[in-house]
Write a structure and sequence with these properties.
Blueprint: H1 6-19, E1 29-34, E2 63-68, H2 73-77, E3 83-88, H3 93-110, H4 117-132
Helix pairs in contact: 1-3
C-alpha cells in the first residue's frame, strides 16, 4: 500500500487498534524515522572530523511514520498483514503528534496487557533465595 494522507492514516490506525480488541495475542509495531531520500546531499566541508554534516541538515526534514500488525509468513500470503505509512511535513509535526498520541492512547486502552505474573514470580523466588543464602 502506498503512503496515505494524515487523515486516512489516523482512520486506518484507529481501525487497526479496534481490530485487535478482544483478541488474545498480536502485535502492532509503530515506527518513525526521518525521510531524507528526496533531499540533496550536503556538501562535505573540511572540518576537524567530529561533526557529521548529515546530523545538521540545512532545512528540517519530513518524518515517515509506519504502522504494521506484524503477521507471520502465512498471513502475509493471505494478505492479512496490514502496513500503513504516512509522511509528516516539519511544519505540521506538533498537530500531527497531538492527534497521533490521542489515537494511540485510545487504541492501547483496548489492547490486552501482557501477563507478566510468571516472570515476576520467578524473579521474586530468585531474590528470596539469594537473600536467605
Amino acid at each position: 500500500m502506498g503512503r496515505l494522507s494524515n487523515d486516512e492514516f489516523f482512520a486506518k490506525l484507529a481501525e487497526l487498534f479496534d481490530s485487535r480488541k478482544g483478541k488474545d495475542h498480536g502485535t502492532i509495531v509503530l515506527t518513525q524515522k526521518r525521510l531524507s531520500y528526496d533531499q540533496p546531499a550536503p556538501e562535505p566541508q573540511p572540518t576537524d572530523g567530529t561533526v557529521i554534516p548529515d546530523l545538521h541538515p540545512p532545512r528540517p526534514l519530513p518524518i515517515l511514520i509506519r504502522v504494521s500488525n506484524t503477521k507471520g509468513r502465512e498471513a502475509r500470503a493471505a494478505d492479512e498483514k496490514i502496513k500503513l505509512s504516512t509522511v509528516v511535513d516539519p511544519d505540521t509535526l506538533p498537530a500531527f503528534f497531538e492527534r497521533y498520541a490521542e489515537v494511540c492512547k485510545l487504541g492501547m486502552v483496548s489492547l490486552k496487557p501482557r501477563d507478566r505474573s510468571k516472570r515476576k514470580g520467578k524473579a521474586k523466588k530468585k531474590k528470596t533465595a539469594v537473600t536467605t543464602a
